[in-house]
Amino acid sequence: MGRVGLALVLAVAALWLPPGAAALDLDVREVAPGTWALIGRTEDLSPANGGNIANAGFIATPEGVVVIDTSASKTLGEAWRAAIEARTRAPIVRVFNTHLHPDHILGNQAFPAATLATLPATRQSMREVGEAFNDNLYRMVGEAMKGTHVVVPQAAAQAELLELGGHRIRILAMQGHSAADLVVFDETTGVLFTGDLVFWQRAPTTPHADLARWRESLEALSALPFKQLVPGHGPVLTDRRGIDMTRRWIDWLEATFIEAAGAGLDMSELLAAPLPAEWAALPLAGSEYRRSVAHLYPAIERRVLSSPTGP
Ligand SMILES: [Zn+2]
Description:
By secondary structure, this protein is an alpha/beta fold. It has a single domain (19-240), classed as Metallo-beta-lactamase, Chain A (4-Layer Sandwich), CATH 3.60.15.10. Helix content is 38%, strand content 21%. The chain has a seven-stranded mixed sheet. A five-stranded mixed sheet has the order 8-9-10-11-12. Helix 6 packs across helix 9 (285-306). The longest helix is centred in the middle third of the chain and has 22 residues, at 120-141. The radius of gyration is 20 Å and the shape is globular. Zinc ion (ZN) binds at residues 99, 101, 177, 196, 205, 232. Zinc ion binds at residues 99, 101, 177, 196, 205, 232.
């Protein structure tokens, strides 16, 4: 076959790929010996990325593998598990869900049910809203979600020290991005998996945020002696820039909303406000700002209006 013929066949084959298949080319990187991160795209959910927008990770020890998050669909979960099993022969012994959001947990189906664990409040909220999230992802991602349903972990995780295969793996129970944010810190390698308490090079999301608690968690994360930080979204860091950026974002959101409430702005006026220069180039800043107006402004407005001296 000539070059032109081959190119034509490849082009036609590309057209036949199922929707979202391109997203299965997972970006999996070794961040420490035996420790890997899946880096999702810093994009919004779409049919083109198949929902592959969140990070995940695993720690392979001789006694077993600890997995952190499962990505956003049955198909992505299967690809993630295959990527893990291509890199270690040790059995998967624990799969933690960092929090309830669907882009991190809808791959649970691809993992043995008995290995799944998350914090009690996350199990509860997954039971309550999991299928609604699943429906929402179908709406945004489409066909690539086919066959996906919510699997709520049977096991309740807790703050503890897991000693496994020569690793001291600290499980931390925090909150603020959601009602329960599980953090994994491998003290042996210095790799910290923060879940969505930290975003980097992508605007943070706030649908279940408690900003005061989120700040406390960011303080606690800052104090950990990590060498590598795998955020919930965005590239791996060796420093605190992701923690600091997330903190600046939530501080800015809150200050903006308090000021707007004091000035008597309504939601539509706030939605129309331009982003300050600091955030103009941050991926998804505009859309996450507008979502955050809907998530956070009503409560802040009530708080400001009910207090004669301000919040
Ligand atoms: Zn999240």
